[in-house]
Design a protein that fits this description.
Layout: E1 4-9, E2 14-18, E3 21-25, E4 29-39, E5 42-52, E6 57-61, E7 64-66, H1 74-86, E8 95-102, E9 111-119, E10 135-142, H2 143-151, H3 158-169
Parallel strand pairs: 4-9
Antiparallel strand pairs: 1-2, 2-3, 4-5, 4-7, 5-6, 5-10, 8-9
Length: 175
Amino acid sequence: MIFNLYIFEGDLLKLKKEESYEIVEHPGACAIIIHYKKNNNEEKICLVKQYRKPIEKFLWEIPAGKIDKQDSNLIETIKRETLEETGILINENKIKYLGYIYTTPGFSNEVIHIFYYLLDSFDNISLKQIDSNEINDIKFFNIKDIKQMILKNEITDTKTLSALTFANIHDLIKF
C-alpha cells in the first residue's frame, strides 16, 4: 500500500510524502537556445540575467519558463516564454527539439524540455522583457565569451549548461 500525503500545495509546486520519500511535484518547463550566426566569426547566444530568490543571486541563463495549465503543447510554452523574457517572436516551424533533463531527480519530478532556434537576423529585434519582473538584463554573448563565463563560474544554471551541451553534441554550436 502506497501512502500519499500532500504536505504543501502552492501555485508552482506540490510537496508530498510518499512512503519514506519527500517529493516535489513540478509542472515542468521549457528552455531555448536562441542562436544568431552571421558567419563563423560572429556567433552569439541570447542569455537573460534573472534573479533567483532561493540563492539570492542573479544568474545568466537561457530563456525558460514553466509549462502553464492552459498551454496546449511544448511549442506554445516556449514561444510564450521567449516572447515574455526577451521580446523575440519566434517562428514555430524553425524550432528544433534537442531533448530533456530532470533537474533534481533525487527529490523532484521537474523535467525541462530543451529547444534550439537559429535567429536569421537582428533586424526588427528589440530585446525587452514583456511579462517578467525578475529579468534584469538581456544580451547576446559571443560563443567564446560564453565558454569563458562557464569556466569562471559566471554561468552555473544547470538547464543552460545542459542546453549548451545538447547544442554542441547536435553540432549546432561549437566551443
